[in-house]
Amino acid sequence: MLIVAAVALIDKTGCVLLSQRPEGKAHAGQWEFPGGKVEEGENVGEALIRELREELGIDTETSCLAPLAFNGEGDLLLLLYACRKYKGVPTPLEGQTLAWARPDEIFSYDLVPADKPLAAAVRDLLS
Ligand SMILES: Nc1nc2c([nH]c(=O)n2[C@@H]2O[C@H](COP(=O)(O)OP(=O)(O)OP(=O)(O)O)[C@@H](O)[C@H]2O)c(=O)[nH]1
After folding, report:
1. How far is it, in rounded angstroms, from Cα 4 to Cα 44?
2. ipTM
3. Average pLDDT estimate for 79-106
4. 108 C-alpha to center of ligand 1: Å?
5. Which cofactor does it need (predicted)?
6. Which helix (H) or strand (E) holds 56?
7. What is the model's pTM?
8. How many structural domains comprise the chain?
9. Residue 110 — very low, low, confident or very high, per pLDDT cuts 50/70/90?
10. Which of 75, 66, 82 is nearest to 4 (CA)?
């Protein structure tokens, strides 16, 4: 079972950050929430904080991560948190493309399949 922690990062205007997977990776060109695999010895919050530093150059803490939704597909368990408080400006540090989406725009992005139920929870939260 692969556990993946991801975040709906929400800005002051109520938009959510989406990340487009780079060429050469599975689901290249499709959009997802920033995050990644929980590594051995990490808890979910620690993994997410590490991924946000590595991928986006931003800092947050566990008290700013609110559990929002999950989805299990095959051997993948996706855990989505909402986060409105973080330090720094999200910057694409790993070749990805970033976009801030309004709630009504989320489904106009070509989302990775497992993210669709999660995206619905984000849209409902922000609408
Ligand atoms: N970060 C993230 N991963 C997701 C989401 N939805 C989803 O199905 N995934 C899948 O969960 C896995 C996350 O792995 P990852 O981000 O740590 O690693 P990766 O495949 O990008 O790169 P890798 O080659 O370094 O393992 C990928 O298989 C990815 O397709 C999502 O919203 N965010």
Report:
1. 8
2. 0.92
3. 98
4. 20
5. Mg(2+)
6. helix 44-56
7. 0.96
8. 1
9. very high
10. 75
Q: Verify whether ligand 1 is closer than 6 Å to residue 37 (CB atom).
A: yes
Q: Which residue has the tokens 């938009």?
A: 15
Nearest alpha-carbon partner for 107 in 96, 122, 119, 92: 119
Residue corresponding to tokens 């990775």: 112
Closest protein CA for atom 16 of ligand 1: 36
pLDDT classification of 48: cutoffs 50, 70, 90: very high
- Ligand 1: which of 1, 3, 4 to mutate, judged by most atoms within 8 Å of the beta carbon? 4
What is the rounded CA–CA span in Å between residue 44 and residue 91?
Answer: 22
What CATH number does residue 70 fall under? 3.90.79.10
Domain containing residue 109? 2-126
For residue 37, give the ligand 1 atom closest to its CA.
Answer: 17
